[in-house]
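USER: I would love a firmer grasp of how sequence relates to backbone shape in proteins. This is the protein in question:
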Amino acid sequence: MKEYDVIVIGGSAAGIPAAITVRRHYPDKNVLIIRKEKQVSIPCGIPYIYGTVGSPDKNLIPDAVLEKNKIELMINEVNAINRQEKSIALNNGEIFFYKKLILATGSKPIVPSLSGVNLENVFSVKKDVDYLSGILNRLTKAKDLVIIGGGFIGVEFAEECNKNREINVTIVEMLPYCLNVAYDQDACEVAETQLKEQGIKVLTNERVVEIKGEQRVKSVKLESGKEIKADMVILGIGAQPNVDLAEKSGLDVDTFSGGIIVDKFMMTSDNNIFACGDCTCKSSFFTQKSPKLMLASIATTEARIAGANVFGLNRENPGTIGAFSTVLNNMAFAVAGLTEEVATELGYSIIKGEISGPNRHPGGMPGMMNLTVKLIFNKETKIIIGGQLFGAYNAGEMINVVSACIQSKMTAEQIALFQTATHPALTASPIAYHLVNAAEMAIKSTK
């Protein structure tokens, strides 16, 4: 019976950085990661297995990073936590003792209670390499693919599955637009145009009521009465926290989000157990509510907080901002913080600044693409609360700057006076730098 200073359960986007952070902050402590998967997929890269990357084997988190940081790895499954003894029990009967425990058990796909959901060729998006390989094998023979859900998972799967294949791809989304949870209408409309230009059918304001077939799926029936031919279905409607082990051990779980309740230090209701990533309950940066956000970027931030705090409370979670990005038809879409719609629902009086222009100067420079930037501010305080970008690829990095501005509670005036590094081959002109000018436009709207 071996004792470890820290045992991390789960070895993906939260578990790995949590363990590495422990080693960095407490180099004298021994750390063990226990995970049930032999190989771990890069979560955000899963849709790209089916097009750009081409194989689950090319979308793996390497274990070398653990060896480099002197972190032990065990492939097994934990089936019980004894909080009184501070021990865990594995499926093979082994018992390990811990001083501190970090739960990074992730999430599992939401599978709706639809008739036909268990038919052959109906798949959810599991983070399991063999399962994902099975989807790829079936996809090579599919002619009519229906993707249920038009969020990030749905649109990315649609585009990747559509690449270099003779296949009919249809997205069914119950909201008015694809990506409607993350973006305002203007960006959603542009995103849908990019999907349709590739021959992908988009059905919005539609709800699937039945998946039809005998042994194998043959069609999908919608609430409107429409029936869509389908020999393959992918369920892309989201995920839910994997809290089975936490509940079994008596840790507090949030009834709304379903996640493990943690404080600002990522400590659970047991002060010897921390949790991070998709399995935890989030706290909004803007409100006291618990947003149902699951992103690898959030998981790694929480992991660095949890890992730093196991033997001393050093870091606090500022709250979840929510920063997203994706690419459709070679056009980037990125968002951070609140959309106009959500800000208004939360009772904010807002001002906004929007600017569109080339991301190089002059416009004839190689690599030039148009970029649209919209920044949203609290009208009372002029503090930035959200931003949306679409167009050029540098939106993917610029949205991180927007997120940093939100976290730092910068005002429109401060962003307008942003000191920027610009170069003709790399950025927009300093005269027309997007973030600065968007802030200036917001200030102008108040004059």
Observations:
- Residues 296-309 form the longest helix (14 residues).
